[in-house]
Amino acid sequence: MKRVLIVDDDKWFAESVGKSLKHKFRVATVGTAEAVFPAIEKFKPDFLLLDLVLGGKNAVTFLNEFISYDDLDGVKIVVMSSAAKDVLREDLLQIGVAEVLDKTEITPEALCQTLETLK
Amino acid sequence: MDERGKKVFELAPLIVAAHELKAPLVLLRQLSLQLARESDPEVVAEIAQRIRLTSERSLRLVNGLSKTARLEGAMFKLEPIVVNNVAHEVITELEPLSTALGQKIEIKTRQNVLAIGHFDLVRTILMGLIDNSLMSHKTGDKPIEVRFRNSGENLQILVRDFGEIIEASRLKSLSSRLNSAPTPLPSRPNSTGLGLFVAAKFSEYMNGGLSVTRHRQGGLTFKVTLPASRQLSLI
Q: Out of B26, B50, B164, whose CB is closest to A55?
């Protein structure tokens, strides 16, 4: 079973998304960008489901740091944010993000399908 | 500033308000999607409670915002109010939310503290500040603290949390904008700049003000200053 690490400061949102993925993926959640790297070491995710608006370090700073580590090449980043329409999808894809999803429109089925396509 | 710049500046509060209201709406949508697929009665009850608490939180934001529009018409009569009683009422109302988030709130006073203000406005201020702290407070042993400081002339209401610390430069910029436009708190995406904007407007209306300080150990204290009531000695 592939593993998904959800990075979202909204605990209830992360829990809810996690539950909708649990029948097809192993899921863990963290609430800040700072908590991601220790969680990667421990959980070894295949996917990072990343919100763009986070506490502490912002997601862009985090993304730049993430892509600078070559040992994390195998972890696919899917950005899922309510600000998805306000950011340039192409810019995110260009720096290595695998997919950009809109929190205001995505359904559990579509999310599962996206992750399965990226496997 | 050119015409386009002015237009963007005028629209900024609206954009922030829209963005801030988007977060609870996105959560409500997600919870309802989860609810539709859930059959375990215990989980269904938990989701229903989260939907209710999130809706109530959003309604508080909208209600506070709509009240700011009525400030212009001076519809709120200022009179002596017992602020610690207002705080107790707010904490009781927020108890389901704080419990669901695993947070505690403590009032640190043994005596009545009075200020000249409007019950509803002070209530909305405290609701906004404590809600803001609840959303950014790190769950742990330390509770969110509500304290009061009476200098004779003024009464200070202090709401202290232990959430993310923010950089000094950002705090300075936030402090200077608190009263002019809803400003999202840097490093605290879940906290509401809208609630702080409303709190600042209401404090100013009651001849007071709102300020914020940070702590080296982490967290912020929001300070509301209101004129103290001389009736204190009569109670």
A: B164
